[in-house]
């Protein structure tokens, strides 16, 4: 524990943005001056902050660093994030080997060949959404009409849940993860979702159906490999991981394009750039804000700095993805850039399970949106939009016309 | 120039699928658990870049490219 004199001079983390779509300026400063430095968190505790791509990549794959938020002294970005994280009893919060056993129960359902089967469904769904937008006429809120329906329909299809429950999911996921929620509100939102999944598991106890939940109940829970409670938490994680994240990438990604009309032009002239443009959006936005926090379970070293067992370590994905050593002119959004090395989905054993699905969804949206609406424009100025202070960065609504 | 050889450390694989996305001619995923299946261990000089990229994006560093001599 650092003395009062020491902590008085430490920077406070998280840093603040001065523009909604850019990295906080302090991040670039720290990377230059002291790339691995001690920072002070909301509760007065301290942690190591890494800011270079190479260091972040190394530490996210360092087996000496634990993701188990129940460990005393585990660093957290805020009281609400701490409450949310501690309520997660799932492989995202476990270390190998238990992490691996649980995660590998889900990987087959998210493998590339499997998720690419969603593309025709997505293409038809997005065409229909755009038809409806045209019928209604502008202005339209892109968050409500496109960004939220796309991932929510995919998740309800994946888990075979009633589409009308998606408003409930969204509200509970956003409340659980918002840093503007109180710790109690966040906890309650998590408990509500777990209770929902407890009912679904019960309903499907004897199901012979082929949906993911029925298969897990039949193949893992009834065999004793997984408890029903562990499955509830797993399903909650799928929801948290796949809903708000993708929705915010769609809404914020469209905003980034609208702020960079030359990039819309480049993309329309070269439709083959869509997959690369999605990677660049993932890099540029790095929406997973308060995700990569770890605690050293054993002594280790990162970028020449000794980390002691018990020390907290923070690896902001945004910092890695805006490191000028790896991505030249990182604040420039450039659809022709080879951004595939980005760490937007994290790195190491906890790298996003659903990333192939996220890619398919985002590629489907950005292959169509500016073809269908070449004159798409923001109704309000970007500085008047309301951005989410959440574990995942997001935007409340985006009114557009065309 | 001699071919390089791919080694996969299967026990590390988490089934993230990045290698399959980047280099589908060399890697596939096991339909049972999504973990890596190495299709071709031999890499012709012209394919080295794409295999190196696949190794680079593997989140658990489970793909190793050996030069022929080793």
UniProtKB/TrEMBL annotation, chain B:
* Pfam hit, one: Fer4_15
Query: Source organism's superkingdom?
Result: Bacteria
On whether Nucleotide-binding is a keyword of this UniProt record, the answer is: no
What this protein needs as a cofactor is:
[3Fe-4S] cluster
**SUPFAM superfamilies for the chain:** 4Fe-4S ferredoxins (SSF54862)
Function text: Ferredoxins are iron-sulfur proteins that transfer electrons in a wide variety of metabolic reactions.
Name used for this protein in its record: Ferredoxin
């Amino acid at each position: 524990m650092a003395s009062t004199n020491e902590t008085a001079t430490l920077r406070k983390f998280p840093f603040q943005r001065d523009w909604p779509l850019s990295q906080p300026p302090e991040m670039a400063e720290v990377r230059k001056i002291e790339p691995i430095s001690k920072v002070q968190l909301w509760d007065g505790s301290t942690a190591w902050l890494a800011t270079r791509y190479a260091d972040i990549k190394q530490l996210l794959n360092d087996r000496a660093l634990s993701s188990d938020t129940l460990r005393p002294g585990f660093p957290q970005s805020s009281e609400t994030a701490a409450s949310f994280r501690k309520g997660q009893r799932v492989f995202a919060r476990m270390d190998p080997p238990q992490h691996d056993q649980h995660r590998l129960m889900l990987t087959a359902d998210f493998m590339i060949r499997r998720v690419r089967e969603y593309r025709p469904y997505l293409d038809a769904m997005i065409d229909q959404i755009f038809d409806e937008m045209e019928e209604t006429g502008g202005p339209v809120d892109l968050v409500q009409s496109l960004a939220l329906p796309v991932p929510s329909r995919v998740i309800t299809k994946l888990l075979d849940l009633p589409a009308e429950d998606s408003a409930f999911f969204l509200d509970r996921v956003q409340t659980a993860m918002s840093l503007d929620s109180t710790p109690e509100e966040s906890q309650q939102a998590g408990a509500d979702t777990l209770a929902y999944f407890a009912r679904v598991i019960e309903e499907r106890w004897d199901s012979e159906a082929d949906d993911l939940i029925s298969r897990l109940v039949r193949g893992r829970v009834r065999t004793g490999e997984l408890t029903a409670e562990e499955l509830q938490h797993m399903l909650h994680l799928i929801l948290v991981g796949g809903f708000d994240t993708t929705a915010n990438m769609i809404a914020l990604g469209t905003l980034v394009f609208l702020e960079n009309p030359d990039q819309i032009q480049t993309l329309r002239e070269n439709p083959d750039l869509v997959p690369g443009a999605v990677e660049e959006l993932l890099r540029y936005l790095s929406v997973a804000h308060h995700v990569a926090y770890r605690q050293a379970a054993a002594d280790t070293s990162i970028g020449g700095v000794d980390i002691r067992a018990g020390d907290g370590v923070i690896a902001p994905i945004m910092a890695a993805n805006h490191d000028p050593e790896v991505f030249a002119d990182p604040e420039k959004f450039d659809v022709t850039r080879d951004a595939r090395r980005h760490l937007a989905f994290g790195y190491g054993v906890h790298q996003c399970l659903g990333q192939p699905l996220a890619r398919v969804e985002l590629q489907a949206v950005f292959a169509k949106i500016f073809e269908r609406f070449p004159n798409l424009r923001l109704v309000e100025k970007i500085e008047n939009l309301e951005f989410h202070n959440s574990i995942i960065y997001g935007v409340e609504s985006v009114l557009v016309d065309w | 120039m001699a071919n390089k050889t791919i080694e996969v450390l299967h026990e590390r694989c988490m089934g993230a699928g990045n290698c399959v996305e980047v280099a589908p001619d060399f890697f596939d995923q096991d339909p049972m658990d999504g973990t890596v299946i190495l299709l071709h261990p031999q890499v012709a000089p012209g394919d080295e870049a794409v295999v190196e990229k696949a190794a680079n994006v593997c989140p658990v560093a489970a793909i190793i490219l050996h030069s022929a001599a080793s």
